[in-house]
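Data availability (excerpt). All sequences and predicted token strings are deposited with the supplementary files. A representative entry, 7-methyl-GTP pyrophosphatase, is shown inline so that the format can be inspected without opening the archive.
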Amino acid sequence: MQASHLALAQAPGLARPLILGSTSRYRRELLERLQLPFQTVSPEVDETPLTGETPHALSLRLALAKAQAVAALHPGAVVIGSDQVPELDGMPLSKPGTHERATEQLRQMSGRQMNFHTAVSVVCRESGFAETDVVTVQVRFRDLNDAEIERYLRAEQPYDCAGSAKSEGLGIALLDAIVSDDPTALIGLPLIRTCQLLRAAGAVLP
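Structure token line:
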């Protein structure tokens, strides 16, 4: 849906319309838990990492850039932008896209601990509100053999997930531990931080 075609309704408990600057179904499903009406708009943002940029910094920059890009089109709305960057050995991992790349990612992560940086940004251009935060989740993978990896990928096909595993699904069986103070961050949107930022922007939440 093109942004120019949106008919934005004011969300109860929020003085302005609410937009999720993402087309991710995972983020949409998470935000629906807050029971606030919202629209989704695809942000047009180049996600190429900058030279020397850390995964942590990349997630923060992209979350803010996505929120700002949509807020520029809808200056009266409160816009949520988010981005997740998995980190292994100091380097970012992208969405695998294919079975072969997912297999290689899971082989790399087998028996390892890695970080998933999930940033969230809330921006309202008219009010001047703009705040961004990041949640880092530590994930420890079990020692995985090729047969386990193949069975998992054939069953769940998580090729649109950075890190090649869905912790909210069968992917949980690949893990030894998850350490986080904001449990939905690993799925793609840290709802505790999101609620904090929405309240700061003027929302009234349960």
